[in-house]
Amino acid sequence: MLPRHVGIIMDGNGRWAKKRGLPRSAGHTAGAANFRTITKYCSTIGIPYLTVYAFSTENWKRPAEEVGALMRLFRQYLEEALRDFQEENIRVLFLGDRSAFAPELRELINRTEEASADKTGMVLNIAMNYGGRDEIIRACRLLIEEVQQGRLHAEDIDEACFSNHLYTAGQPDPDLIIRPSGENRISNFLLWQSAYAEYVIMDILWPDFKKKDLDRALEIFAKRSRRFGGV
What we know:
alpha/beta
């Protein structure tokens, strides 16, 4: 059985470039190309929801040159998505704080979401300027505001209510999270939503992650016994 929701931490672009004596930006370019390949494959095989970790709230700490290269890649991807993804039945949503991005990038984000709003196939969540802790704090602030305004009673706040104030409101929690690159960290990704997710760590740098590697991760997931705290 396929998972309803797959999360991928796209890690290892910089190390991929370093191994080849290339600038880190070359690794991000290769990673972006692979992202498009894997996204279309996930849609083809029938995964309903895919969330990819593209840029975290902590990634702003990287060298300005690298951040600038990433922003240019995002802009290029969005322009290509508006042009090339029209034939794909994929709805694109963005998770994260958009306020830090340049106005033209924010406009492209909005246009991409609007252009795919009527799609009925896979939902693709792109986490940009996203952090799990930041998302939880944001949800708390929204809830506090609703209580203060009398639109919500504090005793009505439960797990479902809290989930509905996250970026992924209305979506199922991830069943499977894949981390290429071999790192054994969550890295602030979908902290609330991944409470019962199955993790598959793969010692493959993201630009080298192929369709067959995704198939292998899905096979590993299918063999897991998911008890959700029960027996």
